[in-house]
Structures are given as C-alpha cells and as structure tokens.
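User: Teach me something about this protein's shape.
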Amino acid sequence: MKSMTFRFVVSLAVVVGLTVMAAAQAAKVDLTGKWTFNVQTDAGAGTPAVTLKQEGEKLTGHYQGQLGDTDLTGSVKGNDFTFGFTSDLQGNKLDVTYKGTIVSKDELKGTLSIAGLGDGTFTAKRQ
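Assistant: First, the predicted structure itself:
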C-alpha cells in the first residue's frame, strides 16, 4: 500500500511540475516583432500588418491596414494582451481595440471592437 501511495505522490508531483513549467514558458513569450493579422468583421475582412514591441507588460507598436496607418498602445498580462488605437478614416475618428490570447510564440487569436462599426475576430501569425 505504501508503494502505491508513494507512486501516486510522485506522479502527482511530476504532473504539477510539468504544468508549472508550461505556464512559465507561455508567460515568457515576447510579442515583439512583425505580425500579419487576419480579421473578420460584419463590415468586412482584412489583413493588417502590425508591428509590436513588448517591454515587460507594456505594449507599443504600429498598425497598417484598412483602418489607416497609426501607432498603438496596450499591455500584456500572462497569456492575454490588449492594444488599441484611434484611426482617422475619411474624417471619422474610430476607436479600435484588440483583445487576445497568445496561442504560441508565433500565433495569436482574439476579438476586436471598432467603435461605431461593430465587433469581429482575428488570428495572427508572426512574420
């Protein structure tokens, strides 16, 4: 009986250790780099190019796509990130917010909101 209990405790410790290691690896993903986004909204689809720079939890960068060419700011907490910008599209100011999850070091997914135009989804791949 002691042998079974010992094996169970060791197995449990290994599982917990692997889970902690996986979480630590995910937390170390740095979003700095060039990304190609694939965006789907009710208003249409697009493939904007986004350059991100991560410093700790701070996120800055640049968006270039159908909504213009503008700087962005945001944050990263664990596997979650958010960034936004204000676009001036034909004299109309649009507030755009992306909220997502880091799927892997080279893949992101999430949702976006374009004030006045609606919501959508996105996936992104590192270039």
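Now, about its shape. The beta strands are 33-41, 44-46, 49-55, 58-65, 68-77, 80-89, 92-104, 107-114, 118-126. The chain is about 20% helix and 60% strand. If you'd like, I can walk through any region in more detail.
User: That's plenty for now, thanks!
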